[in-house]
């Protein structure tokens, strides 16, 4: 008899259910198409979203706050809603099944510009702001009800219970079909789950080789049956990070003859069967490359090596 070969654990499915949609677990974040560094040509942004949808992406992630203030302060009417209008227009001009695409947006955060020309972010999650902005998001997206509406952050000036109360009201009034929460820890997840019950379907937190969920919020999502959606899954483009954190991903990529970004996304998808990852892209090539992570199967040894638990 030969040596017994240990069976590999079952590989998570490429598709999962989120907010009533059965979709591939790799979507697209559209922040890079809408804020600083966005393509100067709006047509290129639309082409990038079309390329994503043509490749098979069925989850587009935007936010009320994906715009650029043009004067010091929090906004200018001309640019308000830039990101949401972009998603609306890309879907309207796409030659594909619009009703298969989950569109998620977020409420409770604003952009700022200071007098030196630096862009920033500012929480404003007073219930009245969250509710008014979510209603604007539905209008901008051209939908009767938002498929999935996230609270963008926990505003330290407002009790989290009140922020969650606003989300609850938005579902109960039919402005949103389901809700999620973002940029939060385990205590906030418990509060949201208590207040929102089955209305709450997803947690959107940072997760990548740069930030490996030190508070283990993914495990909390698993316990509660919530989707975990990774933001900045490739490390993000706004803040610098240590490139060496991707060294092992580059090594595995060389063996698979593909980009290390694709390996990174495949590694994320292997972490939790109910994980969605939403990389940004500024051109068609990037998202076409990234989407192929859905079909990339890493071995258990590779996953452990990338987890940092084993030498190769
Ligand atoms: N909830 C929140 O607070 C929050 C915060 C941040 C982000 N998000 C969401 O997460 C999404 C993604 O995060 P992110 O925009 O910070 O960045 P990211 O997905 O980590 O991507 C960073 C950059 O990687 C490059 N890239 C992407 N695919 C590539 C590929 N296949 N090959 C080579 N390079 C590639 C692109 O930069 P270049 O164009 O320069 O090549 C992209 O902008 C956002 O769009 C947004 O929807 C949410």
UniProtKB/TrEMBL annotation:
InterPro entries: AKR, Aldo-Keto_reductase, NAD(P)_OxRdtase_dom_sf, NADP_OxRdtase_dom. GO terms for cellular component: cytoplasm. PANTHER family: AFLATOXIN B1 ALDEHYDE REDUCTASE, ALDO-KETO REDUCTASE YAKC [NADP(+)]. This is Oxidoreductase. One of its GO terms (molecular function) is oxidoreductase activity. Gene3D superfamilies: NADP-dependent oxidoreductase domain (3.20.20.100). Keywords: Oxidoreductase. Residues 25-307 form the NADP-dependent oxidoreductase domain. CDD domains: AKR_AKR13B1.
């Amino acid at each position: 008899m030969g040596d017994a070969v240990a069976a590999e654990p079952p590989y998570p499915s490429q598709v999962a259910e989120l907010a009533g949609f059965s979709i591939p677990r790799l979507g697209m974040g559209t922040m890079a198409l809408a804020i600083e560094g966005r393509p100067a040509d709006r047509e290129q942004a639309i082409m990038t979203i079309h390329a994503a949808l043509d490749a098979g992406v069925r989850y587009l992630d935007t936010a009320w706050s994906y715009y650029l203030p043009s004067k010091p302060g929090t906004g200018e009417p001309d640019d308000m809603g830039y990101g949401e209008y972009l998603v609306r227009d890309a879907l309207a001009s796409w030659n594909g099944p619009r009703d298969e695409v989950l569109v998620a947006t977020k409420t409770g955060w604003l952009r700022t510009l200071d007098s030196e020309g630096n862009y920033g972010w500012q929480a404003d999650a007073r219930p009245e702001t969250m509710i008014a902005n979510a209603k604007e998001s539905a209008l901008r997206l051209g939908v009767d009800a938002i498929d999935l509406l996230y609270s963008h952050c926990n505003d330290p000036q407002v009790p989290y219970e009140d922020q969650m109360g606003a989300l609850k009201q938005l579902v109960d009034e039919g402005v949103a079909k389901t809700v999620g929460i973002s940029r939060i820890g385990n205590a906030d997840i418990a509060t949201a789950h208590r207040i929102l019950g089955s209305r709450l379907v997803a947690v959107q937190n940072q997760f990548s080789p740069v930030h490996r969920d030190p508070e283990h919020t993914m495990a909390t999502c698993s316990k509660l049956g919530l989707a975990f959606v990774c933001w900045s899954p490739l490390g993000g483009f706004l803040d610098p990070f240590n490139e060496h954190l991707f060294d092992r991903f580059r090594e595995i990529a060389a063996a698979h003859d593909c980009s290390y970004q694709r390996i990174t996304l495949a590694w994320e998808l292997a972490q939790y069967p109910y994980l969605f990852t939403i990389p940004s892209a500024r051109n068609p090539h990037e998202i076409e490359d990234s989407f192929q992570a859905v079909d990339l199967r890493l071995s258990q040894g590779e996953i452990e090596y990338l987890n940092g638990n084993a030498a190769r």
